[in-house]
Design a protein that fits this description.
Blueprint: E1 2-4, H1 22-32, E2 37-38, E3 47-51, E4 59-62, E5 77-78, E6 83-85, E7 94-95, H2 96-101, H3 113-125, H4 134-139, H5 145-148
Parallel strand pairs: 1-4
Antiparallel strand pairs: 2-3, 3-4, 5-6, 6-7
């Protein structure tokens, strides 16, 4: 089972008061199961894994808001309309679709595979070390999660 913190995106009726943090979720489970313990986590993992010894299954927490994992995040997202997002919470996007199609749909002006690789590399190099806080994200313009993909 995985729990993901409520995150501010356009059209999701964000309300910081409805956000239950990773720490609060973990505390509530530990109250009922005092032996609830953290499991080893792979590097670049977005989910923190926990389990109750002697019970089947694991519990994962995706703590995007309360306990950032930005410094180890290696995720990229390609939206359905061909834009590359190097951060889920970043409004900046690079249109790989347009680069591959060329100017005004002219195939002769489409970028080569090497140029496409350079475009992706440049986008990744601009990735910030950390995303903004909840309140700043709530005021920032970003696509609704349903159009980003996840």
């Amino acid at each position: 089972m995985r729990f993901i913190e409520f995150m501010p995106f356009d059209s999701n009726k964000w309300n910081g008061g409805k956000m239950l943090s990773y720490f609060d979720m973990r505390r509530r489970i530990t109250e009922a199961y005092p032996t609830f313990a953290k499991l080893p986590t792979e590097s670049n993992e977005t989910s923190k894994l926990w389990a109750v010894p002697g019970h089947r299954g694991r519990v994962g927490f995706i703590s995007s808001m309360s306990d950032h994992f930005c410094s180890s995040c290696n995720r990229l997202r390609l939206t359905a309309d061909g834009s590359l997002k190097v951060c889920l919470f970043g409004a900046q996007e690079v249109s790989l679709r347009d680069a591959m199609r060329g100017q005004q749909g002219q195939p002769q002006s489409a970028c080569s595979d090497e140029q496409l690789g350079e475009l992706i590399h440049a986008a990744v190099q601009k990735k910030k070390a950390r995303h903004a806080g909840m309140e700043q994200l709530a005021m920032q313009k970003n696509r609704p999660m349903i159009t980003i993909g996840g």
